[in-house]
Design brief:
This protein has about 210 residues and is of the alpha/beta class. Strands 3-2-1-4-5-6 form a six-stranded parallel β-sheet. Helix 2 links the parallel strand 2 and strand 3. Helix 2 runs antiparallel to helix 9. The radius of gyration is 17 Å and the shape is globular.
Length: about 210
């Protein structure tokens, strides 16, 4: 099982396409996409939790690999990934669990709450090509290099502890740009699924304030 977190404010093709490619490349039964209730490293989301979850549910409707999961929205306090992984590990004690992150998130992984414990709970898969975009601190870089798997297949042979770099399509789309497009009255077609664009319009999301 894959775990892919984010604010998804709103969810867009820059989230969905890489998550789908990762799930297929890693031969996963499911990638659970979890909207963060209180992201520790970001400001408060523009849309509230019920809207962000509803948009994600609409975005992944009709296919089985990507799944919207509200676990972090049901918890009190900051949405620490280590707590989320503990939750999934408790219900899948022997199964491979894969934390899927983008390169930007991976670069700052050593600022996450109890980041070293993440490797005891799950494998880490970084979506993106290794090279100049990979900018790890010394301790994190050593950890990732020491645990590097030679193939995606290796991740299925133990429950946790390995790292893997996975090339995926890099779509230059951001939630911030979508929010600003909405505020400016411009179309967001082809940036996010039509069902998400319709939901944003129907509920008047992102239209009333500047986006940071």
């Amino acid at each position: 099982m894959g775990v892919f977190g984010g604010t998804f404010d709103p969810v867009h093709f820059g989230h969905l396409r890489p998550a789908l490619e990762a799930g297929e490349a890693l031969a996963l039964h499911q990638v659970r996409m979890l909207p963060s209730a209180q992201p520790p490293h970001r400001g408060r989301p523009s849309a509230d939790a019920v809207h962000r979850l509803a948009m994600l549910e609409r975005a992944v409707a009709g296919q089985s690999l990507l799944c919207a999961d509200d676990f972090e929205l049901r918890r009190e306090g900051p949405s620490y990934m280590v707590d989320t992984l503990h939750h999934f590990r408790a219900s899948h004690p022997e199964s491979p669990l894969i934390l899927i992150v983008g390169q930007d998130a991976a670069n700052g992984l050593d600022t996450w709450h109890r980041w070293v414990d993440l490797f005891d709970l799950a494998h880490l898969v970084v979506m993106g090509r290794p090279g100049p975009d990979a900018d790890y601190g010394d301790a994190l870089g050593r950890m990732i290099a020491r645990r590097a798997a030679r193939s995606a297949e290796e991740l299925h042979h133990q429950p946790a502890g390995l790292t893997f770099s996975l090339p995926v399509s890099q779509l230059d789309i951001s939630a911030t740009s979508i929010r600003n497009q909405v505020r400016a009255g411009r179309s967001i077609a082809y940036l996010t699924p039509p069902a998400v664009a319709d939901y944003i319009a129907d509920h008047g999301l992102y239209a009333d304030r500047p986006c940071a």
